Structure formats: C-alpha cells, structure tokens
TrEMBL record:
The keyword Transmembrane helix applies. Residues 459-568 form the STAS domain. The keyword Transmembrane helix applies. It is found in: Membrane. GO terms for cellular component: membrane. Keywords: Membrane, Transmembrane, Transmembrane helix. It is a multi-pass membrane protein. This is Sodium-independent anion transporter. The chain crosses the membrane at residues 44-64, 70-86, 116-135, 142-163, 193-211, 218-236, 269-293, 305-328, 348-377, 389-410, 416-433. One of its GO terms (biological process) is transmembrane transport. Pfam families: STAS, Sulfate_transp. It comes from the Bacteria. The lineage of its organism: Bacteria, Pseudomonadati, Pseudomonadota, Alphaproteobacteria, Hyphomicrobiales.
C-alpha cells in the first residue's frame, strides 16, 4: 500500500495578485497576447455596428434626461472611449444608459445643467475610489429581485416621460416629474394630440420591432430614425425636431473644461453624485457579467469601476453626463464578433465621424421618432421571463420585487435599492436561520421507532451508558439569525447533567453573536459545575471562539465527539 503526499509546491497558498496586475486594463492584456490585422477587422466591424445602435439611442436618452442630444453624443464618444481604454472587461461598451434618465432629469431640474456636470465629475471620482479600495466585489451582492424590480420601475418611468412626445402634446404648464402628478397634466393636454407625431412614433416603434423579427442583424433603430427624419424633411411636417428645439448638433467635440464648483455647490449635488455612483457601479458590473456569460471570459470588477470613474470624469470635462456600462450595446458588441476593447474605442471614433458628417441631417430628426425608440427600449428593459420566475419562487422574492418596483416609481431609485437590499437581506437571514438546526442524542419528546431505523454509532452507546452527559449537534451557520433559537435549546442544561458536548463539525461559519452565545454557555456551565466540550470546530470557528473568551479551562476542545467522550472518561489523559 502506497501513500501519496502532496509536494510543498502543491500545498503552498497561491500568491495574491499585485496592485498593478489587478488594475491593468484588458487592452494591455490583449496587446500582450498579440493583436493581428484579422482582430482589427473584427473589432472595426463590431465597433461600427455598436455605433449605429448607439447613435439614436444616445440622443434619445439625453433628450429624455433633460440634456441636449449633443451631450448624449459627447457622453457616448468620450465616456465610451475611456471605458474601453481603461476597463477590466474585454467587451464592455460605455455610454449614456436608460437607467439614469430618472436620476439625471431630477438632478437637472433641481441643480441645473452645471449641477449635473459637477455631480457627474464627483461620481467619477467616487467610482474610481470604490475601485481602488477593491469594493467592487460587494456590488455583486445586490439581490436579483432588486435589480429586476428597479429596472422594471425605471422602464415604466421612461415610458411615462415619453408620452408627451409620443403623442405630440402641447402642455399649458411644465410637465411634472412624479408619475401621479404627470398623468392629470397629460390627460388635460390630450385634445392637442398631433396625428403626425403619433404616426411617426408608432411607425418608428413598428419598424424597430418588425426588423428585429424579420431582419435581426439590420440596424433597426438607425433605419427607423433615418426614415422618420427623411419623411419629416421631405413633407415639411409640423412636428418638433432636434433642429427646432435644440438647433441641431455640433460637428466636433467642445474644448474640455473643469466644471464650475464651490464647496456649497459640491455639498448640494453630493447626494446626486452618490446616487450616480451606486447605480453606475451596479449597472456597469451587471453589464460586464452579461458579457462574461456570453463569452466565457472573466472581467475584473475593481479595474472596471476605476475605468467607469475615469470615463465619468472625462465626460464631465467635455460637457457630458453619466457614463456606465450598457447591457444592450455590450451584448451587441459581443454578437458582432468583437475581439477586444479596441471595438469599444472604435465605436467612439465612429460616433465622432457621424457628428462630423451627418450633423445637418440630425436637425430633421423628430422627437416623436426618438420617443418611439425609447418606448421600445423601455419595453425591452422589463425582464418578463425573470419576473415570471421570481413570482413562482415564493412570497419572499415577490415582496422584494414589488417593494423595489413601486418605490422606484413612486418614491426614489436610491431609496428603492436600499429598501430592496434590506428586505432581501432579511429574507436571506430568515432562510439561513431556518436552515440552522441543533439536535441532541436524546430527543426532548421521543417517538417510537424500529431498531433498524436509526443505527447507533460507538459514541451513542457510550452516551447511553452515561446519562449524565449530553451531546448537542449544531448544523448550519451559527450566526445572529439563528443564535436565539440555538441559545434557547442550549439553555436546557439540567442540573443532573455533569458534562456537555457541543459538536461544531457541521458548522461552516460562526459570527460574533454565535460566539457570544457560546461564551454565555461556558460561563453558565462553569457556574453549575458542568464540564463543557467543543468538538469538530474548524480553525476559523475555533479562532472566533477563542477571541470571544471561549477557552480552557472553561471549555475543552476535541477533534471529534469520540475524542470528547474519551476526555470525559479519562480525565487524567485529558
């Protein structure tokens, strides 16, 4: 019989990655691997495809957010370039996202455009700080029902914000932001409905949906918006266009400039910046995870957050607004055959080329067509299959989903995420506490069973011969959620018991509350003259117990229950 032993090299702990390795952009990794002309062709084609999708979407999101279409293009070009240049994902595409419409429009209404740009700048600094502190991993702990709920809620708000342009309504008063205040105002303006605007918006949405089914590889959004612009131009339709409302779009980027700020202004916009940071981190890492699932690659979360931070700072310098990873454009990038972050950088270059070449045509784009684009986007944002699965999963998931959804619509996005996360955490604690159990070798209320139903081990025979000794076996995480129920069981030590064995062999984790319960048990056992044994504790659990004062002579540690019984029978050997 031979025994194989592990070599020292195989048992050595893996070396932790250095700071430089963790924050090296994926672009550098790709270039080290070797970048060929074939790879460049693949990235150029993917970048062009994504740019075609991003062009109308960036302008539509900017207008819905209370910004100008030019700012949407600045955000896509500058932010998208920096995300791909510095990011920790090979395929991430950055730019303006529909999820930010609610927050951005509220910031513009409250603090003006200068406040929005300053909040974007501060958010970039905060995102970079979160990345450098390596907190990106914790962003992944957001429960799935929370992300589904706030995404669906944002979709409802986006659609509601586009009703005015979808129908071509003329409002006698400024359009309110809250949904319950907005509906009566829109209803009163219904007689001003424009048939041309309604036809353009419905036609745009119809073309996008139809091409998605019949010709899925065609750029449906760009085709639909271009046709709407040509029809508006040729027929001279009396509808609101980018040119009539914004004067068109510029053909070049503006000169970079720091946002105007003072300490008072910074304090005013800081809550908005924190909201941008939280949502930007969640959205970008979700997008990176989607890209990983499609390609089998793995992104580096903290490096990605640093890149998102740099992109937001860069966007603010050029007059843009919030940048984040965009799931739809990232998925399009992957499906188009992208090889590396170069595709994302080229997508930004193609947007700049469009601004230089097609700026005059953009002036004829009707706002109704862009509203039709966002109507389709808002419908696609609602994850119908995921909602169906969560509804079937149980009341807990439904409660978290519903709370997040309705708070997003009627209260505030940040509040919705915090409350949803809290409810999800309580649900997790509740389920973990029910999964943790404690049992003894002698049931409190015994039931008749056949002798063959539960075969006895050696230690059971020993226990039967020692009625003064009792064994409790704890299974599952011994944490604050389960501490109360376990403590109530352990408190049942009778004066007739002279020894107590608490088996931790099936306890993977012990928190400070659980350790405090054990410390109280040790004190109680010492006071009553009961000998306490702790068996099967792994090194981490044992370390936690020792830290909280559960140590000899009040407690005796043993590797197994059998070892504890041996120590009890043979005190001298112990």
């Amino acid at each position: 019989m031979s025994v194989q032993t592990a070599s020292p090299a195989s048992t050595r702990k893996p070396r932790g990655a250095s700071f430089a390795e963790l924050f090296t952009p994926k672009l550098v990794t790709v270039l080290r691997e070797g970048y060929t002309l074939k790879n460049l062709r693949a990235d150029a084609l993917a970048g062009l495809t994504v740019a075609i999708v991003a062009l109308p979407l960036s302008m539509a999101i900017a207008i819905a957010s209370g910004a100008s279409p030019a700012q949407g293009l600045y955000t896509a070009a500058v932010g998208g370039f920096l995300v791909s240049l510095l990011g920790g994902s090979r395929f991430q595409i950055g730019g303006p996202a529909g999820a930010f419409i609610v927050l951005v429009s509220a910031t513009v209404a409250q603090h003006g455009m200068d406040g929005l740009i300053l909040a974007t700048f501060l958010s970039g600094l905060l995102l970079a700080l979160v990345g450098f502190l390596r907190l990106g991993t914790f962003i992944k702990f957001i429960p799935f029902p929370v992300t589904v709920g706030f995404t669906a809620g944002i979709a409802v708000i986006i659609f509601a914000s586009q009703i005015k342009d979808l129908l071509g309504l003329t409002l006698s008063v400024p359009e309110p932001g809250p949904l319950l205040e907005k509906i009566p105002v829109l209803w009163q303006a219904l007689p001003t409905l424009s048939p041309w605007a309604l036809g353009l918006s419905a036609g745009t949405a119809g073309i996008i949906v139809g091409l998605k089914r019949l010709r899925p590889h065609w750029p449906g959004m760009l085709i639909a918006v271009t046709l709407a612009a040509v029809i508006t131009w040729k027929l001279g339709l009396d509808v609101t266009t980018i040119g009539s409302k914004f004067g068109g779009i510029p053909s070049t980027l503006p000169a970079p400039a720091l946002p105007a700020f003072s300490m008072a202004k910074v304090i005013d916009v800081l809550p908005a910046a924190l909201s941008f940071t939280l949502l930007g981190a969640i959205e970008s890492l979700l997008s990176a995870v989607v890209a990983d699932g499609m390609t089998g690659r793995r992104h580096r979360s903290n490096c990605e957050l640093v890149a998102q931070g740099a992109a937001n700072v860069g966007s603010a310098l050029f007059g843009g607004f919030c940048v984040t990873g965009t799931i739809a454009r990232t998925a399009t990038n992957v499906r188009s055959g992208a090889h590396s972050p170069v595709s994302g950088m080229l997508h930004a270059v193609f947007i700049l080329i469009f601004m230089a070449v097609a700026a005059p045509l953009a002036a004829y784009i009707p706002l109704a067509a862009l509203a039709g684009v966002l109507a389709v986007v808002s419908w696609n944002m609602i994850e119908k299959p995921a909602i169906a699965v969560l509804v079937r999963s149980g009341w807990g998931e439904v409660a978290v989903l519903a709370a997040t959804f309705f708070l997003t619509i009627f209260r505030d996005l940040t509040e919705a995420i915090i409350v949803g996360f809290a409810l999800g955490s309580v649900l997790f604690i509740h389920r973990m506490s029910k999964a943790t159990a404690v049992e003894t070798h002698t049931p409190f209320v015994g039931e008749d069973q056949a002798d063959s139903a539960q075969p006895r081990g050696d230690y059971d025979e020993a226990l039967a011969a020692n009625p003064e000794l009792v064994v409790y076996r704890i299974t599952g995480a011994f944490f604050f959620g389960a501490a109360a129920s376990i403590a109530s069981v352990l408190d049942r030590i009778q004066d007739t018991h002279k020894a107590l064995v608490v088996d931790f062999a099936a306890v993977p984790f012990l928190d400070s509350t659980g350790a405090n319960v054990m410390e109280g048990l040790a004190h109680k056992a010492t006071k009553r003259g009961v000998k306490l044994f702790v068996s099967g504790a792994n090194p981490d659990v044992r370390r936690s117990l020792l830290t909280h004062g559960v140590r000899p002579p009040a407690v005796h540690f043993a590797a197994t229950i059998d070892d504890a019984l041996t120590q009890y029978r043979e005190p001298a050997a112990a």
